[in-house]
Design a protein that fits this description.
Length: 333
């Protein structure tokens, strides 16, 4: 057979061999090389909630960068490599990050640990692609009173996955995250992540800050109880329920382009319920929200559900924006 004729056959055989290897499962992972702890988080708020507890020098990679919606995120080859070598992967769960779940499934023999916010706080059900680390906890799905928000955008069993926007759930998550972090390799300062005293001290400081954040939300939003809030998509329903606000409409009830019905519902909420503002999000083009706010005759605000990595700065800025546009003197169109 001529050389040129053999080349397609060789390529075909190589492809078949790769498929057979994949079907037979991943080979036994190589021993971990020495070095700082390697942590991968799916979205910026997860970084803000765990970084203070990590050992000095830990490598942290955020898969979905600031300003980009996690709902449309698809992993890059670099993301896949980072997940493959990670000691700990931190994500939300509840179907929010299907691309990350696929990466985890493709590397089922990795010794890494996977920490899902949803499982850590017992909200919703575990996704189909379960953790592959023998260290993972088995959390039961309990009803904590904030689980179901019908009509959301197709996530696992209709459960609102934006758990991190509820400071009380974030506090529970931090406690579970501390348990996972003590199993990580040593830090650059020579103290192991397994130094439980250091990790627990950082955890307690985070819990105290989350308690203060929760108190600030309760105090500043209490006078606004019952106020309607219209957002870009259904990211803030859990937070609104926690602090007494109401979400009568969103511009994007499902992922993708908003429908005329959704826009009409938002305008009706302004007209009939007195919603005093429309809130867009940095992860979306604000053109539509601006047009709706102008048509309804109410101001346009910005609420950021993902932030840039500083969890507390994100939450405090969102609180200030809600008070500014929903507070005394604010009236609907």
């Amino acid at each position: 057979m001529p050389t040129t004729a053999r080349r397609p056959a060789i390529a075909l055989l190589a492809s078949l061999a790769a498929m057979l290897l994949t079907a037979c499962g991943d080979p036994k992972p190589a021993a971990r090389a020495a070095g700082p702890a390697r942590v991968v988080v799916s979205i910026p708020p997860m970084e803000g909630l765990i970084r203070p507890m990590l050992p000095e020098g830990a490598e942290v990679r955020v898969l979905c960068p600031p300003g980009r919606s996690v709902h449309g995120y698809e992993p890059t080859p670099d993301d896949a490599a980072a997940v493959a070598r990670a000691d700990l992967v931190v994500m939300v769960g509840l179907g929010l990050e299907p691309g990350v779940e696929r990466l985890l499934s493709s590397r089922s023999q990795s010794p890494r640990r996977v920490l899902r916010f949803s499982e850590a706080v017992g909200v919703g059900s575990a996704p189909a692609a379960h953790d592959h680390s023998e260290h993972d906890h088995d959390h039961e799905a309990h009803d904590h009173g904030h689980d179901d928000h019908d009509g959301h955008d197709g996530h696992d069993h209709g459960v609102d996955p934006h758990l991190w926007l509820d400071p009380t759930l974030a506090k529970r998550f931090v406690g579970e995250a501390a348990n996972a972090i003590v199993t990580l390799p040593a830090g650059a300062d020579g103290s192991g992540a397994g130094d439980s005293a250091r990790v627990n001290a950082a955890r307690d400081e985070l819990v105290a800050r989350l308690d203060a954040l929760d108190a600030a939300y309760r105090e500043r939003l209490a006078p606004l109880a019952g106020r309607p809030i219209i957002t870009e998509h259904m990211a803030f329903a859990r937070l609104a329920e926690r602090y007494g606000l109401v979400v009568p409409a969103v511009l994007r009830p499902i992922e993708g382009e908003p429908t005329p019905e959704a826009i009409a519902a938002a305008v009706r909420a302004v007209r009939d319920l007195g919603a005093p503002a429309i809130f867009t999000e940095p992860q979306f083009d604000p053109t539509l929200a601006r047009r709706v706010s102008e048509a309804a005759g109410v101001p346009l605000g910005v609420l950021d559900p993902e932030g840039a990595g500083d969890y507390f700065a994100m939450m405090e800025k969102n609180l200030a924006e809600m008070v500014r546009l929903l507070g005394p003197g604010a009236t609907g169109g």
